[in-house]
Amino acid sequence: MAELFNKQAKNYAETRPSYPADLFQFIASKTPVHDLAWDAGTGSGQAAQSIAEIYKNVVATDTSQQQLEFAPKLPNVRYQQTPPNMSIVELERDVTAHGTVDLVTVAQAFHWFDLPTFYQQVNLVLKRPNGVIAVWCYIEPEVNESVDAVFWRLYNGSAPYWASARKMVDDKYRSVYFPFEPVEGKDSTGPFEFETSRSMDLNDYFTYIRSWSAYQTACEKGVELLSDDVVKDFERAWGEDGNNRKVVRYPIFLRIGKIGN
């Protein structure tokens, strides 16, 4: 997974969306204690910095040192590079001791994980009975009808270059095996829908597309997804309303559960 994002780590940090306050408020409301959170697959720390505003301490891990180098440096966040296949010994040494974590989060990376191994790790580090795991993904950006029409032609054409794990995102994490109990006040583990947005100009939007793993894979195969014709189509659609900057919206889908007894 790390290899898919190393080359475009800067693009990822610059243009990937942050997450809305109401998402973190909802998650935090389900953990009675806010001492320690583990943000797994933190990337360049988009989620970790918001979690750090609520939890006393955050350990944020990723397999990509290149992405971690772009993460914001905060006094209560400890960034840690971890191996792709982290052993229990490494988990305790580099992440945290058993039964010490109030919250485990995974933002837009859950689909890359070896889930049986990760679930074993989650069950070891979360406090019982109220430790919470929250994982979420965002799906394709929404701008307006004209821009979105060009985007979907591009996205559908990019299908051969996505790893199979991407299908979990397209499915909004609905059908993934998620062996945890519903949190208080909920009768299921979701997915629950939120939304984030950011202001972009067209160059920002293109940089976001270039941060895709599929974009890198296509380039390695000699295919430019943002071909001259595609760029011209985007320029035409983007310029229809005369506004250089636009609000780009990303629907978010959250699965959340507690470890129980």
Automatic annotation (TrEMBL):
Pfam families: Methyltransf_11 (PF08241). Signal peptide: none annotated. InterPro entries: Methyltransf_11, SAM-dependent_MTases_sf. It comes from the Eukaryota. Residues 39-134 form the Methyltransferase type domain. GO terms for molecular function: S-adenosylmethionine-dependent methyltransferase activity. This is Methyltransferase type 11 domain-containing protein. It comes from Tetracentron sinense (Spur-leaf). The lineage of its organism: Eukaryota, Viridiplantae, Streptophyta, Embryophyta, Tracheophyta.
